[in-house]
Amino acid sequence: MKKLLATFALSLVGVMSFAQIEGKWKTIDDETKQAKSIVEIWKKSDGKYYGKVSQLLIKPANPNCVGCKDDRKGKPILGMEIIRGLVKEGDEFTGGTITDPKTGKTYKCTITKEGDKLNVRGYMGFSLLGRTQVWQKVN
């Protein structure tokens, strides 16, 4: 009986942690395939998920978001909140936005987790009209 309870408890923890996106993730540049930053994702008290650039691995041409059109305009990329307002729906996190600090453009965002990787999809309008980046877990 104890073995059965222990197995059940470990399985439950494994299933619950599978869908969690909180933590630090390494972003990969689409063009150069080089790691470019570390993004830290956390859950706020409103139950939504947010992410900020916690480390730059490649020095950007401009350290500020000159293309941003909202409260982030002209602000440093380091420390910038680039993911805002994601909510967990089943196995995916959606309903929020992601901002590309290089261009300042903001897109709708959906994130799914597969093992130690995140599939981060930014899109305009329909999810089919976008692109997906794969982010790697930082231990």
TrEMBL record:
UniProt keyword terms in alphabetical order = Signal
Q: Cite the DUF2147 domain residue spans from the record.
A: 23-137
Q: Write out the coiled-coil annotation as residue ranges.
A: none
First and last residue of the signal peptide: 1-19
| PANTHER family in UniProt | BLL5882 PROTEIN, BLR1215 PROTEIN
Q: What is this protein called?
A: DUF2147 domain-containing protein
